[in-house]
Amino acid sequence: MTLETILLAVGPGDAERTDALAEAVIEVAAPAESTVVLAHVFTDDEYEKVLDQLSFDPEVEEVDPNEVAGRHATIRDLRNPLDDAGVNYEVRGSVGDHGKAIVDLATDVNADRVVVGGRKRSPTGKAVFGSTAQEVLLSAPCPVTFVRSSD
């Protein structure tokens, strides 16, 4: 299966797993010369906080979620290993419910694979992923790779 487009979707909990996410994406993207869509998905509240942290003023300027995502630390941390590996990528930002926004982005970019991160679950929680990962795994229009934290 040729992977032309891989969606790597991150959110607020992914800052500590950027190395693992980058490694997983490079492993499949580099040999196939795929394009990776680096997407940061924000809820409405998260987006407002990030706008403030990054000194955007929506009352003075029009704010593009793609630009906000591109300036976010998690996306910046993912760019370096992708650049080093020679992987082509573009950056997207999206605002809304994490799971639905990731599925919508996967559809919009015609993704051949989605990569998302998550954390280890407690013994009782191992049978069920978090709500975002679960929604993406069940609703994405393509295969999904789940990269969990090592801790």
From TrEMBL:
Family, similarity comment: Belongs to the universal stress protein A family.
SUPFAM superfamilies listed in its UniProt record: Adenine nucleotide alpha hydrolases-like
CDD domains registered for this protein in UniProt: USP-like
Lineage: Archaea, Methanobacteriati, Methanobacteriota, Stenosarchaea group, Halobacteria
A Pfam family this chain is assigned to: Usp
UspA domain location: 4-148
Protein name (Swiss-Prot/TrEMBL): Universal stress protein
InterPro entries reported for this sequence: Rossmann-like_a/b/a_fold, Universal_stress_UspA, UspA
